[in-house]
Protein 1
Amino acid sequence: MTITITAFERSPDGGKGLARDTRVRWALEEVGQPYEVRLVSFRAMKEPAHLALHPFGQIPTYQEDDLAIFETGAIVFHIADHYPGLLPQDADARARAITWMFAALNTVEPPILELGNARLLERDKPWYAERLPLVEDRVHGRLAPLSTRLGDADWLDGPFSAGDLMMVSVLLRLRASGILDEYPNLAAYVARGEARPAYKRAFDAQLAVNKAPAG
Ligand SMILES: N[C@@H](CCC(=O)N[C@@H](CS)C(=O)NCC(=O)O)C(=O)O
């Protein structure tokens, strides 16, 4: 059985680990499953061979025997569901960990993505300066309650889980904005995630791809 995922041939972030293949790499490292990576260019992502794997022409994808799936949340859930290490055995604790995965992707990430898009794509618009604080407020609207809920715990619900993996990955996208530093417990939470050996292996693997000479 070979697991193959796809990743950018050259990530737009230059190897900061923000492309979503890092989340999948991290999950695979946490559960100790070896995997192969097929690198795809932006052009190849929109061609029929890749569209057969990912209807929206994106990365990451995940193949294992006859199974081919896409969507990072579904991939990380599949890994966590099939290999021990990322979800508790207890049914209620498992349901809560899965809840945090969805909360990361559905509730916390959207305003963070909106902020990223505003900063990247809207800087030259006449309404940028007026809109930016509104978008930032929406980010704070998610971070403040998250910070309250986390309190001084290490992880969101007991031991580290796929819920934390996803939440830390989502919060990492805020690092450059400085907003995370306004919530010291969230900044420390993210740092704890980054300090995990599995995260480091995942990060280093994607960095190696992005630092390799263009071929
Ligand atoms: N909801 C998807 C989003 C996937 C996504 O946005 N992938 C980005 C890389 S992180 C991508 O492929 N962007 C290139 C494009 O959309 O053309 C998931 O979570 O997997």
Protein 2
Amino acid sequence: MNIKDLLRPTIKALKPYSSARDEFQGASDNMVFLDANENPFENGVNRYPDPLQRTLKSLWSDIKGVPTQNIMFGNGSDEVLDLIYRAFCEPNQDNVITLPPTYGMYEVLANLNAISIKKVSLDENFQPKVDKILSVVDENSKLLFVCSPNNPSGNSFNAKAIERLVSEFKGIVVIDEAYIDFSKEQSWVSKLEQFPNLIVTQTVSKAYAMAGIRLGICYASTEIISVLNAIKPPYNINELTQKKAIELLSIKDIATNQIQDILSEREKLIEALTSVNYISKIYPTDANFVLVKVDDANKRYNQLIEKGIVIRNRTTQPGCENTLRLTVGTADENKILIDTLKSI
Ligand SMILES: Cc1ncc(COP(=O)(O)O)c(C=O)c1O
């Protein structure tokens, strides 16, 4: 498969903006920077940030064991997803495939970019129907979104099913691994060389406890990464985000310990949920949230809101009638949730 053939003609022909910091990169302390029309008075943020986030990228590369040239950062993984649309999908012509119930931004971004969607619902165990998915593909099907672990169901998809999709789909398969750090399954990042049409996205918003700084990660072949780097806004990751991420990622074991805590709290929460009499099903989860089926999702949602507890009502999602999605909180928060669920 030739990835260039999948790119939009506009993108293939694009000459990217070259920022001042792209043109000169050999910074050292005794240099005088008069190239970017910045204010010269130092305050920690008066200079433009590194457009390629070299220090942060090399730290992340060490953490994940992926070469820096296979990594691109976005202003949240939502920005990465938008850039993927803009690189590959021609407005009013191309289509993408989504597997509902799934993360809502794939559809919002399709609408925003004037791209049509072919939806193939997951089966009753929230697994992809591979044959059905491959049967809806046409020559304008450019992207297939595979969210594993899936939001809102929480489960990981069968690895063999994913492998068939990546091998047989003739466009780009985007595996969204926002919740991978909570999962028993391996990341697909190690398969980038095997599958040139694979893009994996991750985020520091979940397991790494940094939703507020907006930092998403894209892993792909060097060919795809260079296209995404060429079309991203030049300074998409601001200085404060880069600094804070470096600071927090440098604290040894913090993410690993928090993930362990969240996973053990998740097991306690699941156990406690079994004794709430109007919960009829607790879906298997591989993420930091649990989907449950209740007698009346709207009623229970409103009762919880009245008690000051905000959860997500997923009842309108396909295959999710009367379901609520509960994020695993601290031990104290989970106790409040359980006590309240039992009291209403
Ligand atoms: C599956 C999935 N992908 C992506 C995101 C967005 O991540 P970010 O905060 O990096 O934009 C979310 C957020 O809830 C998500 O559930």
